[in-house]
Amino acid sequence: MVEIVREGPAPVSPLAREHRVRMRDGVHLATDVYVPGGRDVAAEVPGDAVLIRLPYDKSGRYTFIPLVAEYLMARGYRVVAQDVRGKFRSEGDALLFVNEADDGYDTLDWIVQQSWSNGRVAMWGDSYYGFTQWAAASAEHPALKAIAPRVTGTLLGEPVSAPAGERVRDVEWSITYMYPLTYFHSQDVFHWELDPARRPFAAQAEEALEQLGSRSPSYDQWYPRAVRLPRFPRGGPFEGRPVPTLHTIGWWDNCAPLSWADVAQIERRPAWSLHHFLRIESMDHESYYLDDPDEDRVEERTDAQLRAQLPRMLDPALEFFEVFVRGNGAPSDIPRVAWSLAGTPGMRACATWPPVGIATVTWHAAPDGSLVTEVPASREERTWVHDPRDLVPSSAENPFAFLLERPDESALAVRDDVLAFESAPLPDDVDLAGPATAHADIASDGPVMDVFVRLLDVAPDGGALRIARGQVQVARADEGARVRIDLGQVGYRMRAGHRLRVHVSSSDFPEYLPQPGTGEEPWGASGARRNLQRLVVGGGDGLRVSLTVLPGGREEVPS
Fold first, then answer.
1. Are residues 527 and 516 in contact, defined by beta-carbon separation less than 8 angstroms?
2. What angle do CA 293, 297, 300 make, to 5 degrees?
3. For residue 227, what pLDDT is reported?
4. Which of 138, 175, 380, 411 could be disulfide-bonded to 237 (CB atoms 3.0-4.6 Å)?
């Protein structure tokens, strides 16, 4: 039997009054209301509200919403925190994503009817409770005046797929199948972990469901055949009326590719683009920052530590709401793009991302293991063995909290199944600001090949910090393929004396589902076979990484 730890709802905050808000189909959602002055204030003066709809327990320690509410109330906001349908104290089925548009609309409708509401509502939150903002925006309720989604995406949690006939797709995250088995099985959370030595993983899932005595509707929606129920029944948020948006992305957020995909969509829609403001910070998914002191780099933070974090989390949204909810100031008061150049203090401002004046520098992998800016004259094939029983480990134990660990990845370079290429020490500081891309000519003796590329900053003492990464999966890999690998966006200062390093491998476990080597679908695969992988280095078609470099100005604005 697998060890399963059950986590139920925490007590409702004494600062809140809990309501049961009725949705259009009769389901009631548990909703805490925080009003400045306390829950027993007799005369409620109408005011602006901030709505937070989340599946992680509106009263729980994990998201510390009562502390968030305290901070927002001190700025005069009424705060509405709601367990989404099927989670913790709310009724209904725990079904990922598909009810959030209608439930968001109905909750906004309820808010504007309350005596403490003046009819103006903003939304704030991370991850899934960033997604609920996009869902509410798609429903186009007139009371929704501004949103501030952080570290999220409109396709959050969607299983990876490739267009028909395409050989190349992204590699599937393990969390895609684990999340509906743990966080979205039913009202409570059920914590358990995969045994990496036991296959198929799908069988472990069935054992856990049998042990729990009930199915997970969300898991059954995803596996064995992904049923994509519409998450935006009125159409995607970018197809309708734009809502002023402060869109926050973390340089080390593992979900950042989803955020950047939304940015690309918004840029193709002038009305939405006009209302879109981008903020990019040196943080991960769980709001750990690159510059956090060691004493704050802990998994269980105290109330004092959490309260100290709130200004950094909430002040940008409050400044945004001051303009777009309360009408104090002008949109021009908000930087169109505010961004952190990791490794330097403060925030910078620019009109577009990437900033103007950028240049592209391409680094080529050479047969001798170096990384150079000239095309190497010689060309050869480098090989390694992908062994499903001995996988390249993921960078961090918890990929959502990368900067909690801030792992040193230098040891990976000595593995036989990791190819490493390294530059000479940089003579000057180099500011990376914009997209990073790798191109590779690859092949395998197996039917499917995964390719992972990590870009690292190697300090003079040998420590290696990952600053960008990307991956692709190639079908019919025995035919070979030339692939483009998106390494994401980068905002990072490489210091003089540091080196660039590139790692290439065929697994990244447990963050990503590993190829079994047999061509079977990884979650349900029972077999395992070693594959010989091939990569071309040197010459015009060898492995190369293109980086965007920002020359010149370093003007900073306050964060």
1. yes
2. 140
3. 85
4. 138
121: how many CB neighbours lie within 10 A of its CB? 26
* Amino acid code (one letter) for 517: G
What is the DSSP secondary structure assignment for residue 479, as one 8-state letter? G
- Whether the pLDDT of residue 248 is over 70: the answer is yes
Query: Both tokens of residue 218?
Result: 């969300």
- Of 411 and 164, the one with more pLDDT: 411
Nearest to 448 by CA among 474, 422, 467, 430: 474
Tokens of residue 439, six digits: 């191109």
Instruction: Check if the beta carbon of residue 436 is closer than 8 Å to that of residue 488.
Output: yes
Q: How far apart are CA 337 and CA 352, in angstroms?
A: 6
Residue bearing tokens 């005046």? 145
Q: Which among 491, 488, 480 has a CA at the least distance from the CA of 541?
A: 480
> Residues 464-478: pLDDT tens digits?
999 999 999 999 999
Q: Which two tokens stand for residue 181?
A: 């088995």
Taking CA 507 as the corner, what is the angle to CA 165 and CA 548, rounded to the nearest 5 degrees?
A: 80
The four Cα atoms 310, 316, 318, 321 give a dihedral, to 10 degrees, of -150
- Overall pTM surpassing 0.70 (yes/no): yes
DSSP 235: -
Q: Which of 99, 111, 101 is nearest to 143 (CA)?
A: 111
> In Å, what is the CA distance from 254 to each residue of 156, 185, 465?
11, 23, 15
Q: Residue 489: what are its φ and ψ, rounded to 5°?
A: -100, 150
